[in-house]
Amino acid sequence: MKPIEEQQVQQTSTEEVSKSKNGRQRFEVKKWTAVAFWSWDIQIENCAICRNHLMEPCIECQPNSMNNGQEECIAAWGVCNHAFHLHCIKRWLKTRNACPLDNTEWTYQKFGS
Questions:
Q1: Fewer CB atoms near the end CB (10 Å): N or C, the chain?
Q2: pTM over 0.85
């Protein structure tokens, strides 16, 4: 016997199936596979400097990845807990020693891929 919650879900989904003008069901869901998202333990998943996703190569590494996929583009976190591509934040720090997002003094917390 099915659990009560599963029976209720099946009844509800069967009742909500849209019907055509002649009273027949227009479609029936035979199988449904749910998909879940996951993310790193950071609030922003894009590098605020180059706007690329942190798990993708930065704008400096993109041309190199086509030719030589050996070098890895890693992310760097500051003590403010903001993350950027290492190449992007290094280039940023040449002109100003502050986090691009909150303008606090930049100090490296960790590096990772």
A1: N
A2: no
Strand partners, 75: 85, 112
- Cβ neighbours of residue 11 closer than 8 Å, sequence gap 6 or more: none
Query: What is the mean predicted confidence (pLDDT) over 63-79?
Result: 75
What angle is formed at CA 101 by the lines to CA 96 and CA 105, rounded to 5 degrees? 45
Rounded distance, CA 104 to CA 97, Å?
8
104/14: higher pLDDT: 104
Q: Which architecture characterizes domain 61-112 according to CATH? A: 2-Layer Sandwich (3.30)
- DSSP secondary-structure letter at 56? S
SS3 91: helix
Q: In this structure, how many other beta carbons lie within 10 angstroms of the beta carbon of residue 99?
A: 21
**CA–CA separation, 76 and 8 (whole Å):** 48
The 8 Å CB, 24+ separation contacts for 5-13 are: none
